[in-house]
Amino acid sequence: MPETTTMTATLNPEDLARAAALVQGLRDELRKAVIGQDEVLEQTLVALLANGHVLIEGVPGLGKTLLARALARAMQLAYARIQFTPDLMPSDVTGHAVLDPAAPGEAGLGRLRVLEGPVFTNLLLADEINRAPAKTQSALLEVMQEYQVTLEGRALPMPAPFMVLATQNPIDTEGTYPLPEAQLDRFLFKISIGYPGAAEEAAIVRGSTEGQMGHLLPLDALQPRLQAGEVQDLQRMAALVRADVLVVDYAVRIVRATREWPGLSAGAGPRGAIALVRAARAGALLQARDFITPDDIKQHLLPALRHRVMLSPDAQLEGRTVDKLLLAAAESVEAPRA
Hints:
alpha/beta, two-stranded antiparallel sheet, 11 strands
């Protein structure tokens, strides 16, 4: 793995050009496998550069697993998948300690040896995360916030970069456990994935059936475009994108507006504004800019906030949606002018 480049305190045109070239190469590679989901792909790349986690919601068969595997392959990162089920235990996620009789310990009983779980990877796919009970879901709380797991009193760090892509089905809710607010708040984005267009769907069918055995995903054409050190470079670049105090204040005012908006029984907390600014920085870097604008904040409004607010009972009865209420709340907030 190449040495990580030392970044300066500000971004220069060479940094921006390099970042744009790296991301464009990754984007082009992912599009070979992920067809017809450009918006989902772009939002995932924003979350990656912002060093955040993503919850993807959609019915089965829309490419959620394909996206995670393609992302890991195109970036040459370690990848692990956990199928969340009602009988999954926290130790199945984080790991556990076993007694190793071959290692000398006290009283000749051996020594405890830590077996790391599948969470120790670069890209973790938590498939159907809402099918596991809260006790198992909580196994991800520490690792998603602090990028470490505590086992037998030892804090074990995650490899860098580290990202969780979780999926859930919004339709089949039988036997599921809704994610608690603390868990949802750990995700930078909640992305809704829908059906592709007719032409894209035909291309998907051709790519998945021509010369492909039934159990294989169309990933053969993908080539590694980024290594771990380059991904960390991009994340550091995103953190250096300038955020004017007026634009940050705009993000804060939008989040505060959600707390009093009719139809929302609970608004977004401070992490909502943090997510908006982090996403805006990453989005600006994708466009080779070293500053964010109010439009960057508005662009990422829905994926950054839709899982941080709750509909009131009256709004649910009236058939109103979180997305429409968030857009209305944002429109009520005046954007700063240059």
